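Chain A, query sequence.
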Amino acid sequence: MIEPVRPIAIADIEAARARIAGTVLRTPLVRLDLGVDGPDIRLKLENLQPTNAYKIRGAANAVALLSPEQRAKGVWTISAGNAGQGVAYAARAAGIACSVVTIETAPQTKLERMRALGATIIPVSYELAWRAAEAHAFDGVDGTFIHPFDNHDFIAGHGTMGLEILEDAPDVRTVIAAIGGGGLITGVGSAIKAVRPDVRIVGAEPETASPYAHSLSVGAPSKFPNWKASFVDGAGGQSVTERMWDRMHPLVDDSIIVSLHETRAAMRLIAEKARAIAEGAGALSLAAALSGRAGDGPIVCIVSGGNIDLKKFAELVAH
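Chain A, predicted structure.
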């Protein structure tokens, strides 16, 4: 049975923070040097997590809260790579079997890391994986399902990042996060709005897959027309589900659509200025900030992950 959607309380996030402290890194918040006249942009480097992506926050919290009966069944999730790594990492630490229904076009780096963490990989098409995420079910896979974004405990884990941002940047005016399924921005937004309701929470989506911006334009959760796959594999879903719309809509002030060219440029800039590798989804937030549509700083951009094949990264930033 799927539990009803309810707000992510600040108490849930604070409890998650204590619960996952031994597993999750408190990532640095660094200012991006854009010159004396440049905007005040700070990068929350979640690509430095043990799995090189923020998903470990939610995964560690969700696995820690499983009952003994649920643990005995093992766990499974659906992922393009980052959620799978997070759940597999947490499951391995807890001695729990893990399977991942994986999008077959996921980068080889992500597939190899999930296998190295002991996960059983079940490759499927993007469409089939997305339908399974919407249905919270996939035929033929046993175990306790941990949803990669529509899961209260998973989202509460992500909210711990919001607490860190407020502590390290008390003057922040806008926080930008990529939107895929919506779990990241819901968690961070829940934490920040509870403490600082004046801070703007803004999404970033690629031009090829921006269902939340489209849903905002029509005023209801919607499917994105003409969805296309791209190197931004960790964000940009095919649609916004009703449940995630109910979670995001009270918290997210806007969503900025960025081009693939802007995303590649942001990946390159992060590498040049911060000496950090961001995957496509990880650079969306900076691309949105640099567009000028996110308002004045200080702006915190969440670099959500850095799991990308190095050869592919070099090809993308070379142009």
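The mean pLDDT is 95. The radius of gyration is 18 Å.
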